[in-house]
Amino acid sequence: MPEKSRKNIPTNSMTDYFSQGISIERISFEKSDFETAELYEIARNSHRDEGHTFHFIEKGTVDIEIDFQKYKITAPAVVYMHPNQVHRILDFTDMTVCALSINNEKLNPDYRNFLEEIAPAKPLLLTENIHTDIFKTFSLCLNFSKQKSNKLYHLLLKDGCNTLVALLTSAFLNQNTPLNSLPRFEVIAKSFNQLLERNYLTLKRPAAYARQLNVSTHYLNESIKNATGLSVSQQIQERIILEAKRLLYHSDKSVKEIAFELGYEDYPYFSRLFTKVVGVTALTFRSKKYD
User: Fold this and answer.
1) What is the pLDDT of residue 2?
2) What is the rounded CA–CA span in Å between residue 42 and residue 178?
3) What's the rounded Cα separation, in Å, for the pair 42 and 246?
4) Residue 92 to residue 74: CA distance in whole angstroms
5) d(CA 61, CA 232)
6) By CB count within 10 A, which of 4, 69, 247, 281 is most buried?
């Protein structure tokens, strides 16, 4: 059955705590009790989260789709979603989930840079030691969130949750090669990816990114090719088309509206670009959601 009409991809603000830029909660539920609940349907619908979101799967199993990639996750594990990513739950068992979402205003800028370095991040299985540390820190932050009468409430919650973010981010980074041991071309590639994520709507030429990175366009292109096998132009196109796929699949905007939103006034050019990158037309791609 097609989903009801919607012009924009839904954004999940989670709970009322998010009015302060932070949402934190621990939820336990049984699938048998959840199937008839409205929350179940909301959870299964594709959406974005308003902040940088971590789901610490304490108990149970969940099948999730993040930007068209499907994962089966078994506790203990952590899932990180960047605010741009679109995701939905496909299936789950009885679960206990600790969830933290924090917006850019309340997030330590250094941690934001690290998170943009690892995004998109695959779900992370946790060792016993880090699992224990995360659970203890989460429990402390959850306790802070309930102390609204405390004169230092906002600071306690902000600083505590940033400590939790640091712990979680560190766990993700530890599965990757340290930045200071990477070859120069991979360091350039990581910096380029961060710039691309922030500027893909407005900067569409390799030279614009090369200027910001203080390297030549040729050197940037060689670095990206060495790191990914793709040219800078291809990387830019891939990022733009990912957003186009999200909007085609999860909203009812027309192809022309999507082209304009992504910075293309030349609608036929955008249509040709989509077909070139994806291998099918935009309308054919959209039709797959109803298969």
Assistant:
1) 44
2) 38
3) 18
4) 10
5) 38
6) 247
Tell me phi and psi for residue 125, to 5 degrees: -75, 140
Give residue 181's pLDDT band: very low, low, confident or very high (50, 70, 90). Answer: low
Residue 75 — pLDDT band, cuts 50, 70, 90? very high
CA angle 203, 204, 206 (to 5 degrees): 100
| 50 contacts 103 by C-beta, under 8 angstroms | yes
E strand or H helix that includes residue 59: strand 52-59
Residue boundaries of the structural domains of the chain: 11-173, 181-290
CATH 3.40.50.1370 corresponds to the domain 11-173: no
Closest CA relative to residue 56, chosen from 145, 157, 130: 130
Indicate whether 178 pLDDT > 60: no
Backbone angles phi, psi at 166, to 5 degrees: -60, -40
The reply to whether the predicted model has a pTM over 0.85 is no
Strand, coil or helix: 219: helix
pLDDT one-digit tens code per residue, 198-214: 999 999 999 999 999 99
pLDDT band at 177 (very low <50, low <70, confident <90, very high): low
User: How many Cα neighbours within 13 Å face the side chain of 92?
Assistant: 25
Buried b (16+ CB within 10 A) or exposed e, 116-134: bbbbebebbbbeeebbebb
According to DSSP, residue 265 is labeled S
Average pLDDT over residues 150-157: 92
Three-state DSSP state, 101: strand
Mean pLDDT of the chain: 88
Which SS3 state, helix, strand or coil, does residue 126 take? Answer: coil
pLDDT (0 to 100) of residue 39: 61
Per CATH, the architecture of 181-290 is what?
Answer: Orthogonal Bundle (1.10)
What is the distance between the alpha carbons of residues 113 and 197, in angstroms, rounded to a whole number?
A: 11
Tokens 């991040």 -> residue: 121
Q: Packing angle between helix 109-118 and helix 153-173, nearest 10 degrees?
A: 30
